[in-house]
Structures are given as structure tokens and as C-alpha cells.
Design a protein that fits this description.
- The complex is a heterodimer.
- Helix content of chain A is about 0%, strand content about 55%.
- Chain A has no helices and eleven strands.
- In chain A, the strands form two sheets. In chain A, strands 2, 4, 5, 6, 9, 10 and 11 form a seven-stranded mixed β-sheet that branches.
- In chain A, β9 and β10 form a beta hairpin.
- Chain A is globular.
- Chain B is mainly β.
- Helix content of chain B is about 0%, strand content about 55%.
- Chain B is built from no helices and eleven strands.
- In chain B, strands 2, 4, 5, 9, 10 and 11 form a six-stranded mixed β-sheet that branches. In chain B, strands 1-3-8-7-6 form a five-stranded antiparallel β-sheet, with no helix packed on it.
- In chain B, β6 and β7 form a beta hairpin.
- The chains are: A mainly beta, B mainly beta.
- The interface between A and B is medium-sized, with 24 and 21 residues.
């Protein structure tokens, strides 16, 4: 049963620290998405990749967030420096990139910035 | 106007009840539509796709009205296990999905 994996599952850090979240998409999927979920905003798309190339990161605060896909099996989302307002659940999802695509979500990283 | 709007609920219903959720979307060029389900502290999972002709999957029926830009989900014979948040989702092109904030359903014994 193929699934998206994410690490860490939970992260508590102090303001100003660097946070790196990792995602392993489902093998064979060519699109990878990063979302952030908060009670106030719901699920927001931060960035996405197709065939490892970044296609859209307009949802991401550019000054502190960066997303990369160093290879087909790993996507990373980095926050530096972290702020309390970054506290949220960060989901990675992968899919096959068609217009009727189903996105498969990982279990999420619950980030708390103190 | 938000891209995808849903009533946040919660909808409190007894077991066996029929409940319907509605959703409106603003982008008339949207190409595909879905309902996802999210359990508490879990990731969203696809419940079903929504087609113009309407589609049914067991106790779940989804409808799409493109003219009114309106999507619905009907759940018949509600079970305790149906308690979750239901997310209305619209594909706005290039595989990117826009999620509504969800409607919470609580099914009680």
C-alpha cells in the first residue's frame, strides 16, 4: 500500500530556529505539493513541483520559506528563521499531474514555534 | 469572494439520518471537483470525485451544477464513523487544488 511519508511528525522549536520538513512522495508520482493547514485559513497551497521542477511557490512567504526537490524521492520545506505564526500542520501530497488527479496526502508535520 | 465556500457546521445528526452539504466555487473555469474527508488530526483523503452527471458511491451521492457553480454531497443512513470534516475541493488547473475550509459532521448514537 503505497503512501506519502513525512518526517518529523511533530516538531517543537523556538522562534528563530531553522526547521526542515521532509517528504517522500509515492513512487511514480511526478507532482508534489506542500500545504499548510491552520484553523483560521484552512488548507493553503504553499508550493508545488512537477518532475522535480518548482512550478508555483506563490503561496509561500519568500523571505523565510524555501522548498526544494533534490531528487524524485525527496521533497523538503525549510523555514529559516521560524516564527510563532508559522505554527501549523504542514502536509505534503503527491499525484500524477492530470486534471482529474487525486492527491495523496502524507500524515503531516505538526509544527509548534514557541 | 472566496474561491471555495462551505458552511463550517458542525452538523449534528443522529445515526441513520440523511445529511447534505453544499459548496460553492467562484472560478467558472474550474475543471474537476472532489470531496475529501479529514478525520481529526489526520490527513485529508479523497472521498469521491464529482461529475456533472452526478455520481453515487454506496451511501454517498455527489452532484455538480456548473451553471450555479455549486457542488453537493449527500450522506444517507449516517454512521458514527462518518463523523469527520468534509472538504469541498476544486481543481483550478495545472493539477492545483483549492480546498474549502470544510464542513464538520458529528453523528451521534
Amino acid at each position: 500500500d503505497a503512501r506519502v511519508t513525512q518526517t518529523p511528525r511533530d516538531k517543537v522549536t523556538e522562534m528563530g530556529q531553522e526547521v526542515t520538513m521532509r517528504c517522500q512522495p509515492i513512487l511514480g508520482h511526478n507532482t508534489v505539493f506542500w500545504y499548510r493547514q491552520t484553523m483560521m485559513q484552512g488548507l493553503e497551497l504553499l508550493a508545488y513541483f512537477r518532475n522535480r521542477a518548482p512550478l508555483d511557490d506563490s503561496g509561500m512567504p519568500k523571505d523565510r520559506f524555501s522548498a526544494e526537490m533534490p531528487d524524485a524521492t525527496l521533497a523538503t520545506l525549510k523555514i529559516q528563521p521560524s516564527e510563532p505564526r508559522d505554527s501549523a500542520v504542514y502536509f505534503c501530497a503527491s499525484g500524477t499531474g492530470t486534471v482529474t488527479d487525486t492527491q495523496y496526502f502524507g500524515p503531516g508535520t505538526r509544527l509548534t514555534v514557541l | 469572494r472566496k474561491e471555495v465556500e462551505q458552511d463550517p457546521g458542525p452538523f449534528n445528526v443522529p445515526e441513520g439520518a440523511t445529511v447534505a452539504f453544499n459548496c460553492t466555487y467562484s472560478n467558472s473555469a474550474s475543471q474537476s471537483f472532489f470531496w475529501y474527508r479529514q478525520d481529526c488530526r489526520k490527513e485529508p483523503k479523497l472521498l469521491m470525485s464529482v461529475y456533472s452527471s452526478g455520481n453515487e458511491d454506496g451511501r454517498f451521492t455527489a452532484q455538480l451544477n456548473r451553471a450555479s457553480q455549486y457542488i453537493s454531497l449527500l450522506i444517507r443512513d449516517s454512521k458514527l464513523s462518518d463523523s469527520a470534516t468534509y472538504l469541498c475541493v476544486v481543481n483550478r488547473g495545472y493539477s492545483t487544488l483549492t480546498f474549502g475550509k470544510g464542513t464538520m459532521l458529528l453523528v451521534s448514537p
